[in-house]
Amino acid sequence: MTVFWEPYLSLALQPVSAADLAQLEQEWGVALPGEYKDLVTACQGMAPTPDIFNVGKKSTNVFNVLLTIKRHEGYESYSIPRAYEVLRPHVPPGVFPFAKTPSGEFICFDYRDRPTDPQVVLVSVEMAVYPISNDFGSFLNGLHH
């Protein structure tokens, strides 16, 4: 299914550069998936349609917004650095946020078992980690109405 991206934040964002992505990779000590880098370069701060994803076999959730690479005044809560600050003390090392749900949960990369091709997981408001998808491409392909 084709995913369409629409602006979510009412803010003119600076373009994501290769240096921005390299800095994030260096800070986290990981290699971000190429498909993610292409997407966030074009669509940071945007919302997808369709936006529903499966969590396990009997639950669904909503992909609300792709987090921004840098902080933006007034929109810090939509940035990866702020999301990571919130999550870091509560989740295992190797789990890194890239998107939010409407209820404040985070969609994250999970590098714990696969250092070069992370799984996608949901971190609940209780900071529990739930598997969503084997990889980022499968996650995007699984979005539905």
TrEMBL record:
SMART domains: SMI1_KNR4
Superkingdom of origin organism: Bacteria
Short name of any one Pfam family annotated for the protein: SMI1_KNR4
Domain Knr4/Smi1-like intervals: 15-142
InterPro entries xref list: Knr4/Smi1-like_dom, Knr4/Smi1-like_sf
Protein name (record): SMI1/KNR4 family protein
